[in-house]
Amino acid sequence: MDILLLIGSLVGxxxxxxxxxxxxMNGKTKGAAAQLIREAESKAxxxxxxxxxxxxxxxxxxxxxxxxxxxxxxxxxxxxEGRVKQKEQSLNxxxxxxxxxxxxxxxxKENLSQQxxxxxxxxxxxxxxHQQQVKQLEKMAGLSAEEAKTQLIxxxxxxxxxxxxxxxxxxxxxSKLMATKESRRIIIGTIQRTxxxxxxxxxxxxxxxxxxxxxxxxxxxxxxxxxxxxAATGIEIIVDDTPEAIILSGFDPIRREIARLSLHxxxxxxxxxxxxxxxxxxxxxxxxxxxxxxxxxxTAIDLNIHGLHPELIRMVGRMRYRSSYGQNLLQHSRExxxxxxTMAAEMGLNVxxxxxxxxxxxxxxxxxxxxxxxxxLLGMKLAEKYKEHPEVVNAIGAHHDEIEMTSILSPIxxxxxxxxxxxPGARREDVxxxxxxLKDLENLALGYEGVEKAFAIQAGRELRVIVESERxxxxxxxxxxxxxxxxxxKEMIYPGQIKVTVIRERRSVAFAK
Length: 513
What we know:
This protein starts with a helix and ends in an 8-residue tail after the last strand. By secondary structure, the chain is mostly helical. It has a three-stranded antiparallel beta sheet, with helices on one face. Strands 6-7-8 form a three-stranded mixed beta sheet, covered by helices on one side. A two-stranded antiparallel ribbon has the order 4-5. A hairpin with a 4-residue loop joins strand 6 and strand 7. The relative contact order is 0.04.
């Protein structure tokens, strides 16, 4: 407020001085000057009054704000005091409860002490009575307490051993049964969840043409074109009377594919001569190499396998043009990878490692430079070379029992490889060998005494043996199935497993006339 009054006075003084100066400068009379001074003084008074009003208004606002802050602080203090009082009341009630419980515990403790004293007295009486009874029993039995205890322990030990042996045998049998059921469930579920097409491949490819006129252009003058094409690709090209088709024959699928693609380009272009053939074949080889890498990358992406070495990716792509007993190697490896992933998931194992091992388990069949080393060991060396996981390396090397299995993934890969290779239609088998295998299987069973008939069914995966009920009892039938299965394992070579079923039937026939 003092500052505002001071400002008002200064403004009034300045106004008066300004009026005097104005009057002097304009030559005003003394009366006019006085008039100006009075006007200036009145304006100064007005300014001073306005300043006083504003100062009072400012002080009123400050006072109201101060009172509001004070009320707010007082309210918070009151709330805090209320909470403190409430906590104090709660603590007082808890303290009262504790004191009451302490008194109750003291009473219980005193009661227990009295009961313990009573029990101690009774125990002393029981001990004296027990000693008297023991002495009487020793006199009656003629044995001391230690001797009787020893005999009792020996008897109980013998009985416990007998019961434990029976229990152990029961548990082992039950565990075997449960393990067999669980393994069957996992394997059957894995097979059912993995659907695969038949993968039989042949050693020939068919190249279709629009008309038979193209055959003459492919043969060329005096057979120059076809000889140049065979020399460049290493594939035998058969041009016969087959309408609108040319046969490409060869055991190497890559060479057959190069020949097929080269023929397609030559026929589409129309220029077929030896120089052009060599050029097209060279370009096709380069194109196929790029396609092999692309196939490997696409396979890894489809199976969600990451971090494969580029050389392993190239080998996976080359699997597309390799076969095993007529089964496409890449399709077989993809199928094994999916089977391994499913089985590992059922058993709670690492699914990614299982899928990786399944895809790479036959990688040793791809290289052509080392034909003496078994493909499992060669694949294991390649996996070690390109820094694969040790469990994957062991699974690759042990899937044909060339090395010892050190990882749980190894038997999984071995089982899935057998599942993929032994399913019906997966691999090619000559009709003569197939029929011979079935006959050998039936003849093996017919060689046993009491066997009447034997039938190989389900493509040789089950052998049903019918025996004479008069000569073979139920117990002997059970032993016969075991003996036949053991002899099959020792003497025959077969894919997968063979189920041996011995059927014994007794018929009693009578006629009512």
